[in-house]
From TrEMBL:
Residues 208-218 have a biased composition (Polar residues). Pfam families: FtsK_4TM, FtsK_alpha, FtsK_gamma, FtsK_SpoIIIE. This is DNA translocase FtsK. The keyword Ribosomal protein does not apply.
Amino acid sequence: MAKKKKQTPKEPRKKINFSLSRQQKILLGSFLFLLGLALIFSFISYFFTWQADQSNLGILGERDLPAENWLNKFGANVGNFFIYDGFGVSSFIIAFLVTLTGVYFFFDYVKSQLVKFWFWGILLMIWISIFFGFFGEKTTLLSGIIGFETNDLLQDYLGLLGAILFMTFVMVVYLVVRLKLTPEKVIAALKSSKKNIAEEFATPVSETETKATVTEPVSTKKDISEKPVPKTEEEPISKPIVMEESVEEKAVLEKIILKSDVEGDVEMEVEQAAEEEVLEENFSEKLVKDYGEFDPRLELSKYKFPTIELLRDHTVGNGGITIDQEELEENKNNIVDTLNNYKIGIANIKATVGPTVTLYEIVPDAGVRISKIKNLEDDIALSLSALGIRIIAPIPGRGTIGIEVPNKNARVVSMRSVIASPKFQNAEMELPIAFGKTISNETFVVDLAKMPHMLMAGATGQGKSVGLNAVLTSLLYKKHPAEVKFVLVDPKKVELTLFNKIERHFLAKLPDNEEAIITDTTKVINTLNSLCIEMDTRYDLLKDAMVRNIKEYNTKFKNRKLNPNEGHHFLPYIVLVIDEFADLIMTAGKEVETPIARLAQLARAIGIHLIVATQRPSVNVITGIIKANFPARIAFRVTSKIDSRTILDNSGADQLIGRGDMLYTQGNDLTRIQCAFVDTPEVADITEYIGAQKAYSDAYLLPEYSGEEGGTNLDINIDDRDKMFREAAEVLVIAQQGSASLLQRKLKLGYNRAGRIIDQLEAAGIVGPFEGSKARQVLVPTIDALNQLLENEMPTS
Ligand SMILES: Nc1ncnc2c1ncn2[C@@H]1O[C@H](COP(=O)(O)OP(=O)(O)OP(=O)(O)O)[C@@H](O)[C@H]1O
């Protein structure tokens, strides 16, 4: 979310922090300048007219009685206020400061200097007015009442001498801190002035004359015009080189020209770099001040998030959550009886009714071993005669044993209800996903950015596609098109087609692809490699910006600390969704596995997240390297305990009841969730709603990746062919079926090797190209034709 960050609290408070437009600055500048002039004129005039006007001050409010001050009643009053009642003659400083502030605003100079001027100016004003207080009451016009009274106060406490010493100390502070005066500089200055006087009376100066000149770094334009310019080149530069002071000047040089006492010696000029001036306002802060933070949503600023009305309430007619007392009682009795049969006494039992299952939490009698209950899992399930019983012994962190029993009437959890839940709506997450409801009826929301990748498995028809739609819908409800992009891989070609409508809002694709949703294996390989390039580019950007992750990078970019001219740009999250992974791995093997493993290992920090779904969670699909990098796993119902272990490292998924009943793990704990149900027409409505709005000119373009010719290794060298190449070719020609799994079975090959051989067969023109879930076409009709073809081949090397 593009929330504006507050300025850091460390920022000096005195800093003027207006963010005015240029026009406003000019207006304010001219007002202050003229007000300053008015004050100056009033003050000057006040010295001549104060006696005449002061006796009338009381009635100055009356319009008819004019005052003598040049600025009439206004002048007389401000003069009296500042000079008589205030600071005496030093009040001119305030008038001068107001004028100067006007000039700064008018010309839009860097204002950090102004604060210094005001601080030291006011200090000097007070000092002068107190100083004049030493001259007594008669000089009120010099000291002002404040100066006189303060002086009086000082003298009352410190005595005259003490007051003088105190005032001297304050002056020393001013000279040292403000003017950076040091004894050496004073001595050098004195010497130089003595020398100058001497020069006036002396004969023309010789080149080797001894002298040291200190230039004063601070001067004004007027100084330049007044200083005589050396007329001839031979003439020694006896006058200091005066530098014009500019507030934005980065370094002021103090020059000390040292001249030796010894005649004929060479003159040396020592250049002493003064402290570099610190600009309190940094460039990016100024940019933020002038233009505000960068808003990635600006291009589609009118974008409207999908409304909740687009989702339907599937619980209607389903009756919402109903607690069937009879059912509860029956199950309880069953559990108690079963456990009693095995001599397990129960101290306490509690039921939590969820949408699809009810959790019975049991506290066994003291001394009962938990392993005993766990071993009875199957027996308990049998006696409860229900599918989907899961025993959790013990429930982590609770010290009780849980038995999950499916409800007779499972309730559908609508996507609408989870999207509308405060938990999702208020989720301060980068990529919030509302999966559904837990057993205790709480909406389950997780951050995909933290997962950072997700593996999803489940036998066909158990709710995988609905689960993927729930993930995508959650993101569509929370994220602006500028913030997240999807790369959708759908070998089944039907599941994700609806998302085509939001191509120019939310999808990312390769530049030369017409369709954003990828259905072809070759294109999947190219896209995955392109994502790897995108990942490397993003890492370079992060390195350049000296940040550790995409969130810090984007914050820095929004604060205008990264220059777009150097290639920096706002980075949207990229979510890669692969709907049928088994299919891809079977056909492309390593070519898919390698980039996926690489992305899964490295992409978390730069905002690329993977969601991989598969029907067949067997170990040759979900290989060790892939599994190790997908800590978040979701299992819908699977057919065997082995599949459950492959996906979750735990049994349980085989005990689920289907229809969106799922187990989620992100480490150790398993959470049972009823996946939210979002129907195809709802997804159609949402994509339609988004698709009808103003879009970007194209989908988010991924970096180009040309890959090898045709995407697969079509130019595989004949000499590099697998040893089993010929046998494999024969198997396929005989069967007239170009499938890798056939090769695996007949030749007992690993699927990677089988995939590679298929590629080689394609390169040799024996089988046709990949055709999605169908087997490849075999292009050679008979074994004879095959022999002929292979004999005619010439080795390329
Ligand atoms: N969360 C859910 N709540 C209620 N019913 C669901 C839920 N998820 C799925 N179903 C039901 O199960 C059916 C099949 O779901 P889905 O299409 O998601 O299965 P699948 O696992 O993707 O199957 P396949 O792998 O064959 O595509 C849906 O049409 C719906 O009736």
